[in-house]
């Protein structure tokens, strides 16, 4: 009789202990994730401006969002552009610089630090710097481009060039991917290269048949996290748009995001515009759920293709 | 970050191997690789250089195509420093980043420890939910959160809605710490338990000292996050300039000095510099932490 009793007491003690250690996060999960997420779902089916109580209005917010609200589809199109071009460029440059760093033999530490440093630049500061550098007419980048006989485009002031300008900024801060790729490249077994060299394989053939297959999980990781980041892209396009448009002051209540001509609009900016500029909380919550669904879909993809994210011990 | 350091050390060690024998000769290969390296380095460094040079020009020259300052206006930095509000933004940023980081570490370590070392039902589900929270864009839940902080607790116009949640564990920090704690062998914990330590004592006396590099990495990431955060202050503090942080105030600084690129660039340098200095200081701490645990293990 005594033995099962103590076993039960022991189990209860261990459960209590687990609950105690987990408690900060359990409270945080309920208060800052579960509750607001459920509220967001509820608000998305109501007419709500934050002053009068929410009134159920069915699918009205959703049809308004998909048919009449002028900023939603431009934001989706921009996101698609960013996913294809910006993520693509970042992965290619991240792999390129990672590869380069593994080949550099003189002062590799210095090169590595220099390549990594821009990643650390605070986004607002980096964006301001790039709006200045790429400023048409007087920006140093334009002076350099024209020095070698190239025409400098309008960058952040031209709807066709604002996303390429953001891409240049994103490629400048490619240090995070560089480090990930560098570590992956160093993990490729050296014997495979030596064997290929004996077989007379050239540099490209070795890259194509040994390097790429070995690092393909890391490429997938970089692409998927890049897609998630692209969907959440907020500070850089917003600040670039505001600064290039010459908006004065920081309150931002009057600024219609996406300058020039909605070309830098992204989904999080749409949430801000609907919620905090138009006080249409219902539709803002609908966009927030679109953002949520997209983020979670790609997160699930990431975890499915890469069990390593959770790792051993499970 | 700690993992990164070991990887980069391995990089240094391994790049020391001799150049491949075949091809157009080792010298040509060396020149090609290093020219490419210098070109890439210029791309990464020149923006910083132009930024710094412009911050030292006078008002009028900053609006021209000249790249090199005619006169070196070091006073620009003093002028930015004495701009009304700038010191307040510094103080607010340090409060947000400093207190926030402290709270994050204190609240995330026990959770990460439980997820890494306890066996309990719902552990895998908890871990999946942590990852889901980690990937959640802040905009998804911002409307209910704003209503909660601003309408129910009347805390808009302050940074508390951003700081208080950090006392309840940060998903990214929990995840990263958990990955780090997995690398600590269970034998150490078992030894402590055999010595009669409870779980809390085991965590404080045995695990914490060994997890120092992981904690340093998490603290650094969290500090950078708060330093760089723009969306949070925009939502909760935009109406009250006395509560702005550097990252948020910097943009309005540009608005107020829209023809003074030199001053804006000086302010930009002042926002970037602490992060970069901190990185150099902490990078050393990481290397030391990693080697220390290596020696002891």
TrEMBL record, chain A:
Q: Where in the cell is it found?
A: Cell membrane
| UniProt-listed PROSITE patterns | ABC_TM1
In this protein, which residues make up the domain named ABC transmembrane type-1? 76-302
Q: Does the keyword Transmembrane apply?
A: yes
Instruction: Give the domain of life.
Output: Bacteria
Which SUPFAM superfamilies does the UniProt record give? MalF N-terminal region-like (SSF160964), MetI-like (SSF161098)
Keyword Membrane on this protein?
A: yes
Family annotation (InterPro entries)? ABC_transporter_permease, MetI-like, MetI-like_sf
This protein's UniProt keywords: Cell membrane, Membrane, Transmembrane, Transmembrane helix, Transport
Pfam families from the UniProt entry: BPD_transp_1
Q: What CDD domains does UniProt report for this protein, alphabetically?
A: TM_PBP2
| Similarity section | Belongs to the binding-protein-dependent transport system permease family.
Name of the protein described by the UniProt record = Sugar ABC transporter permease
TrEMBL record, chain B:
Locate the compositionally biased regions of type Low complexity: 1-18
Write out the entry's keywords from A to Z. Cell membrane, Membrane, Transmembrane, Transmembrane helix, Transport
User: Gene3D superfamilies of this UniProt entry?
Assistant: MetI-like (1.10.3720.10)
Q: Which InterPro entries match?
A: MetI-like, MetI-like_sf
Q: Where is this region: Disordered?
A: 1-22
* Main localization, broad class: membrane
Read off the Pfam families from this record.
Answer: BPD_transp_1
Record-annotated ABC transmembrane type-1 domain positions: 90-282
Tell me what topology the record assigns in the membrane. Answer: Multi-pass membrane protein
Q: Where do transmembrane segments lie in this chain?
A: 27-53, 94-115, 127-147, 159-181, 202-225, 261-282
Report if keyword Transmembrane is assigned: yes
Subcellular location field: Cell membrane
Question: Is the keyword Cell membrane assigned to this protein?
Answer: yes
PANTHER family linked: ABC TRANSPORTER PERMEASE PROTEIN MG189-RELATED, ABC TRANSPORTER PERMEASE PROTEIN MG189-RELATED-RELATED
Q: Which family does it belong to?
A: Belongs to the binding-protein-dependent transport system permease family.
Protein name (Swiss-Prot/TrEMBL): Sugar ABC transporter permease
